[in-house]
């Protein structure tokens, strides 16, 4: 910040010098299984306040029900799918410059347990949230739990498709 003094009027004026964006918090690499919700954190500062955009593998991420910008600059992905895997960049810009930081999202294949330890199917499965990209389901516990259930896999097909 610079101080300018005008002697003829006896007035002090402050002129703000633009400051390029810098990262207070960089996004971190994340591992997530399919259907999990994740959030890349990205916190920036600068003067004037920088605008923040996200990119995935060089393409702009367009906010939607599925890709959400939260807390001003964090990227939340709801119901991760395998195709979400890749490199995400947080890009901050203002009139003084820009800064970028990246992180990788890895979506590993889930381990498949033997059938002797699998629970029976869940009961009364119903959709509670339907979007163009995902469906959130609700159900009652299975009749035979066979241990501590951590996740179910849902397979989708349209009527008439083979």
List keywords for this structure.
162 residues, mainly beta, Immunoglobulin-like, 2 domains, three-stranded antiparallel beta sheet, 0% helix, 47% strand, elongated, disulfide bond, Netrin receptor DCC-like, Ig-like_fold, membrane
Write a short abstract of this structure.
Keywords: Disulfide bond, Glycoprotein, Immunoglobulin domain, Membrane, Repeat. 0% of the residues lie in helices and 47% in strands.
What does this structure look like?
With 162 residues, the chain is mainly β. The chain contains no helices and 14 strands. Strands 4-12-11-7-8 form a 5-stranded mixed β-sheet, with no helix packed on it. A 3-stranded antiparallel β-sheet has the order 5-10-9, with no helix packed on it. It has a two-stranded antiparallel sheet with strand order 1-2. It starts with a strand and ends in a 22-residue tail after the last strand. It comes from Leptonychotes weddellii. Its main location: membrane.
Percent range of helical residues: under 10%
Number of domains: 2
CATH top-level class of the largest domain: Mainly Beta
According to CATH, what is the topology of the largest domain?
Immunoglobulin-like
Query: Any idea what the radius of gyration is?
Result: 24 Å
Low-confidence stretches: 1-6
Give the number of helices: 0
The N- and C-terminal alpha carbons lie at a distance of 68 Å
CATH homology superfamily of the largest domain: Immunoglobulins
Number of strands: 14
What overall geometry do the principal axes of the alpha carbons give?
elongated
Mean pLDDT: 85
Strand content: over 45%
For the report, how would you describe the main beta sheet? 5 strands, mixed
Q: Order of SSEs, N→C?
A: EEEEEEEEEEEEEE
